[in-house]
Amino acid sequence: MTNELTPKFNPTEVEAGRYEKWLEADVFKPSGNPDAEPYSIVIPPPNVTGKLHLGHAWDTTLQDIIIRQKRMQGFDTLWLPGMDHAGIATQAKVAVRLAEDGILPQDLGREKFLDKVWEWKDEYATTIKEQWGKMGISVDYSRERFTLDEGLSQAVRKVFVQLYNKGWIYRGEKLINWDPKAMTALSDIEVIHKEIDGAFYHITYQIEGSDEFVEIATTRPETFLGDTAVIVNEKDERYKHLVGKNVILPIINRVIPILTDDHADMEKGTGVVKITPAHDPNDFEVAMRHDLPMINMMNNDGTINENGGKYEGLDRFEARKQIVADLKELGQLVDIKPVRHEVGHSERTGVVVEPRLSTQWFVKMDELAKNAIANQATEDAVEFYPPRFNDTFMQWMENVHDWVISRQLWWGHQIPAWYNEAGEMYVGEEAPEGEGWTQDEDVLDTWFSSALWPFSTMGWPDENSADFKRYFPTSTLVTGYDIIFFWVSRMIFQSLEFTGKSPFHNVLIHGLIRDEEGRKMSKSLGNGIDPMDVIEKYGADALRWFLSNGSAPGQDVRFSYDKMDAAWNFINKIWNVSRYILMNAEDVSADAVSSALTKVANKTAGNVTDRWILTRLNDTVERVTEQMDKFEFGVAGHILYNFIWDEFANWYLELTKEVMFGEDEAEKDITRAVLLHVLDQVLRLLHPIMPFFTEEIFEKLPNTSGSIVVAEYPKVRPEFNDDKASEGVAMLIELITAVRNIRAEVNTPLSKAVPMLIKSEHADFLNAVSPYISRFTNPSELTIAKDLAVPEQAMSAVITGAELYLPLAGLINIEEEIARLEKELARWQKELDLVNKKLGNERFVANAKAEVVQKEKDKLADYQEKFDTVKARIAELKEN
Asked: Is the pLDDT of residue 222 over 90?
């Protein structure tokens, strides 16, 4: 195999066929090592309704980062893939496709329609898996699950029956949210409240047997067709004489009573409230208190039913127009006042939701919620990242309502309840014996089966299942904050109820991906981004780098093509660094690298820059691992970026050229070994985030073997730590940077040699590294001493451990130099103020780690020395 890399990184070439090779090698399956600690993740199942979106790409990227790192760290990792049937959304998509051919679901009947949905599922599941492959996600496909698999269906039936037998699932007539387009019930959290333009319609109702009228106001005048009472507050003096009388509903002339109830607010509007129990949740409660009849005046599709008189058959909004016109003609429409108000819309179809009385199946939530709340105070509590989302979870559980779980669909888990002509009902995991039983037509809410996902996918209800025993509870869930209520909370309370354990130890919450202007991506705005289009242009590694580094946990991120360009440039930088190293070290063996590193660690070979980069590598490994363990991928990425781009590529590689272009072959061998080792470790650190190109380079390294997928994750090697080397090269870099800055200020290019004087207590060290100083600063004369005469006309800089002077007679203006130094003095004063403020904070000093406090004290001493030196130099220039 050639060790050559193309001159320019090409993601299409690098990623082509790579995923298939991984699958063929079975590197994604659990290790099966009984001594290894298990680490498991179940993928948040995407809906089989179309292509993956950026939000799901974010989910899968973060999970893949976690699982790849844990796999490399020696954990027995399982990442289980699967997909969700998505009842409402999928059925609606298939219905639209059939409509294009002029076919209605009713034309086919339930069974043939479901055959069409299964065809859809197979088509889009294939598409999703292809997209997962392009993203590089390292799942174990031998364990792939689907929410309508027989094993999962068995779990759903068992849960339903057990909750029913406990009295926690019941069937009853209640007011629910109704989607007139999908013609199904919705749970509260499937309703999105949007602010829209509407109106308050002020209508008069005549008092029966008199010429007196009362005025009511409503935003939904069509609902008066279902009114069964009018209420006033018993303390309202204006209406005491009317209590017990009746009003006549206009147009339909139905007589309804006037009652008293605290729901009527004397300070709000006219103080008179119409009660429509079958179409308003508050009115429903009033009706329950007063035993009022409940009149449903709407069909499943949102048209007016037979209770609507002459409006029967009209769409609800068309009926509203005609009713308003008729009321106006009767003289009973007093006023129309525009209003901006929130109205519930279906999360799936987007239509206005209709509160509607309906017979449905419900889950009683009081005990389930109580158990979930109590669990958060135990050792088995689910840890949320960031922790603030625990409050979000707790608040919802403390205020949760009974969950309507039946859906008027064909696609989904059909409710395991049967009825006979005698009016009897049977609930069981299997159909009842005997003839004459008909199964409930409704299916369960998609989230009912998704709530069982962490344990049903592991083989439950068979608690002796090998996977269930080893990998449940799962380790980490990654998901967006928008489905904490939909999914996360339901998984927690169902898992506690049926397994006695939390479903996962950690929940990492990310935000939403927005466009460059901060807007939520949507079809209506036309600002959506297809992740496959991004991969086609930049590659999966670049997209994954962006998604992992975009924000902190819980925060939204703005997609930007500028950021994608930056990600590609970063990969290309590493690619070019790798080419340089491979061209100079292609014949170095693994044994040679190991031997050379041992010599460097023992300080029997290698120079100070070798020991410096290995020390910096140790620090990088430690900090990156720490941040990854806290799911702070953005911070980890920032640390990696700075080490790779600045310290490794911009400094160490450049510093090695002093050796590589020299004559000492033994020293070259050491440098080649260090270059290969650092590159190897960098690739391993990067691999969880950017798997494709890291594998491509890793397999070309002469000192490695096998796949990087199962290579050992870097660990800190204390024998490489060398504080003196680290401090020395840091001073060298600061010195070179200071010279470059001074040259730039006086417009003196590096090609022009200038004299240089360095005053330092570390003169011996600086003289030892003077070849580096000469290579990177081009002095005509270089003087380094512990004490030397300071030239009067010189540009100067104060760095840690040294003072630098460049006598540039004729190029320096004393007044300008004093002004420059005064700016520098102000900068050091600002740094001193910041550190003093931090050290003056008693909470910081008391709570921070001792090494962190000491680091701040060291900074204070360093800044103070620099401040004093600059101040003294200003005084000298002013005296002269």
From this structure: yes
List all residues 6 or more positions away from 597 whose beta carbon is below 8 Å from its beta carbon.
Answer: 614, 673, 674, 677, 720
Mean pLDDT, residues 798-822 taken together: 79
| Contact between residue 871 and residue 825 where contact means Cβ atoms under 8 Å apart | yes
Please return the burial class of 515, using the count of CB atoms within 10 Å of its CB with bins 0-12, 13-18 and 19+.
middle
668 or 852, greater pLDDT: 668
Residue among 769, 778, 777 nearest 732 (CA): 769
pLDDT at position 51: 78
Q: What is the DSSP string of 480-545?
A: EGGGIIIIIHHHHHHHHHHHSS-SEEEEEEE--EE-TTSPBP-TTTT----HHHHHHHH-HHHHHH
Q: What is the dihedral of CA 217, 219, 224, 226, to 10 degrees?
A: -130
With b for 16 or more beta-carbon neighbours within 10 A and e for fewer, the 604-614 pattern comes to ebbbbbbbbbb
Going by C-beta distance under 8 Å and a sequence separation of 6 or more, which residues neighbour residue 367? 168
> Per residue in 57-77, pLDDT tens?
998 999 999 999 999 999 999
Q: Which two tokens stand for residue 820?
A: 């420059």
Beta strands in 347-447, from DSSP E residues, in sequence order: 354-363, 383-385, 403-404, 406-407, 417-419, 425-427, 438-439, 443-444
Give the whole-angstrom CA distance, residue 411 versus residue 264: 43
Q: Look at residues 419, 353, 438, 42 and name the one whose alpha carbon lies nearest to residue 180.
A: 353
Q: Tell me the sheet residues that pair with 84.
A: 47
The closest alpha carbon to 547, from 54, 200, 88, 49, belongs to 54
Cα torsion through 28, 34, 38, 41, rounded to 10: 40
Q: Is 188 helix (H, G, I), strand (E, B) or coil?
A: helix
| Type of residue at 468 | F
Is 40 a residue whose pLDDT tops 70? yes
**CA–CA gap between residue 825 and residue 740 (Å, rounded):** 19
Query: 151-185: per-residue pLDDT in tens?
Result: 999 999 999 999 999 999 999 998 889 999 988 98
Q: Name beta bridge partners: 35.
A: none
Sorted by sequence, the CB contacts under 8 Å of residue 738 that are 6+ apart come out as: 797, 799, 804
Task: Provide the percentage of residues in the chain whose pLDDT is more than 90.
Answer: 73
Tell me the whole-structure pTM to 2 decimals: 0.84
Report pLDDT digits (tens) over 722-733: 999 999 999 999
Query: Exposed, middle or buried, 782 (CB in 10 Å: 0-12/13-18/19+)?
Result: middle
Structural tokens at position 769: 């590294």
In the structure encoding, which two tokens stand for residue 254, read together?
Answer: 């139905």
Contact criterion met (CB below 8 Å) for 652 and 584: no
pLDDT single digits (tens) 570-607: 999 999 999 999 999 888 999 999 999 999 999 999 99
CA distances from 187 to 267, 336, 454 (A): 32, 32, 22
- 258: part of which helix (H) or strand (E)? strand 255-260
Each residue's pLDDT tens digit, 437-485: 999 999 999 999 999 999 999 999 999 999 999 999 999 999 988 878 8
Structure tokens at 764: 């011996």
| Token couple for 591 | 């044994």
pLDDT of residue 3 exceeding 70: no
Amino acid residing at 582: L
* pLDDT at 546 > cutoff 70: yes
| Helix residue ranges per DSSP H, 52-187 | 54-72, 87-99, 105-108, 110-135, 150-165
* Angle ∠(604,606,610) on CA atoms, nearest 5: 135
Q: d(Cα 590, Cα 676) in Å, to the nearest integer?
A: 9
Q: Where are the alpha helices (DSSP H) in 840-849?
A: 842-847
pLDDT digits (tens, 9 = 90+) for 666-717: 999 999 999 999 999 999 999 999 999 999 999 999 988 899 999 999 999 9
